[in-house]
UniProtKB/TrEMBL annotation:
It comes from the Bacteria. It comes from Planomicrobium stackebrandtii. Belongs to the ComB family. It catalyses: (2R)-O-phospho-3-sulfolactate + H2O = (2R)-3-sulfolactate + phosphate. The keyword Metal-binding does not apply. This is Probable 2-phosphosulfolactate phosphatase. Its cofactor is Mg(2+). Keywords: Hydrolase, Magnesium.
Length: 248
């Protein structure tokens, strides 16, 4: 029986222990939601980097057309589009994206040694669970909550619980204590239409920087974005085709 673990913030990740595991990184507000919307709007591949310096360095050596997105501690970065899914427009021609953030992209970097690494949010967590469930192995499943700059983040914990909820609907899994609590948190949040997330710490941070519609936008798209972001060879691509071909 496969084991499911939830790590409540990126700082607690033991990188070497992720080798051989299947992992998913969750940063509901905003990085992993933004990744999902970028893929949906024809931005691919996506390069998730630690900070603006790495983003600029990669941009200078990037031959393909691309956009830069980023924030640092909630603040905008000059020359970067803010990584808010509300701002992403449909791209007629496929274009790459380079994104950096305070929490989510750092969590992706810390989880990059996992055997398989997915990028999840409330907008697509149901598909991440389905893709994990369809794996033909017995690897442990590690759900990494990005957290909020070295602190616990309510929305990411609920996002992890979403994956646990869908996994346990599909089969039998051995759940850690944190996985059980995350599932209960998701069930409660879903039952109450995620009302608590409008008052979470990150929501107030976004309001302070005048991104007042971000929380509503993400929650309005709960399980409505049809992408499966997969981190592979240093970039994020949409792995959705593999899930559709295996469905009965």
């Amino acid at each position: 029986m496969r084991k499911v673990h939830v790590i409540t913030q990126k700082e607690a990740v033991a990188e070497e222990k992720l080798k051989g595991c299947t992992a998913a990184v969750i940063d509901v507000l905003l990085a992993t939601s933004t990744v999902a919307f970028l893929l949906e709007n024809n931005y691919e591949p996506i390069y998730a980097v630690r900070d603006s310096d790495q983003a600029i360095k990669l941009s200078k050596h990037q031959n393909e057309s691309h956009i830069l997105l980023g924030e640092t501690k909630g603040e905008s970065i000059q020359g970067f589009q803010y990584p808010d899914p509300c701002l992403i427009q449909l791209n007629d021609d496929k274009q790459a994206a380079i994104i950096c953030s305070t929490n989510g992209t750092i969590a992706i970097e810390k989880a990059s040694k996992a055997n398989v690494l997915f990028i999840s949010s409330l907008v697509n967590g149901h598909l991440i669970a389905e893709r994990i469930h369809l794996q033909e192995d017995d690897s442990s499943i590690v759900l990494v909550c990005s957290g909020n700059d070295d602190r616990f983040s309510m929305e990411d914990f609920i996002g992890a619980g979403q994956i646990v909820e869908h996994l346990t609907r599909k089969g039998n899994y051995s759940l850690s204590d944190s996985s059980k609590l995350a599932r209960e948190a998701y069930r409660h949040a879903h039952k109450t239409s995620f009302k608590d997330l409008y008052e979470c710490e990150t929501a107030h941070l976004l309001k302070r920087f005048d991104f007042t519609g971000s929380v509503e936008f993400v929650l309005r798209h709960h399980e409505a974005v049809d992408v499966v972001p997969l981190y592979r060879d240093g970039k994020i691509v949409n792995d959705h085709q593999k899930i559709t071909t295996k469905r009965r």
